[in-house]
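user: Here is a favour to ask of a fellow structure person. I have my own habits and do not want them to colour yours. Could you put it straight underneath, so I can go through it closely?

assistant:
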Amino acid sequence: MGRWRNGRGTLIVEAGERGSGEAAGADAVAGPDAGSGLAVPLEIAASYRARTRGLLGRDGIKGAILLSPANNVHTFRMRFPIDVAYLDRKLRVIAVHTMRPGRLGTIRLRARHVLEAEAGAMAGWGIRRGVRVAVQKPDGQGTGPEASG
């Protein structure tokens, strides 16, 4: 299996996975790239350096950031609360938590990736336990780390 590479992409939450009547959130867009799903701007942090930095030193994020590989996070030195979704190797959500600054998250043994966004955003996107997401790179390739070579 290959690994993700640092860069940008789009997080796709399929329409069938989201509950009816849920708000899309200010940063999400439904568009042709999303098919019938919700498209959210995504940063991919795959290198050790990019994962270590994550959201540290920022005042916010438009969309979400995917840390891969990762199975836990912390919010020390963060400036804002975040939503954290732990994903398994098939990009299915294992757990979602909101973390305030200065906290240490629980290690999730089954988690292979961690998705972070501003607090409250994931509920608006319909991301909850059991939901499966996909990642689309700007060049249209891949929905998983194995597709990035």
Notes: The longest helix spans residues 48-53. The chain has two helices and seven strands. The beta strands are 7-13, 38-45, 64-67, 82-87, 93-99, 113-118, 133-136. The longest strand covers residues 38-45.
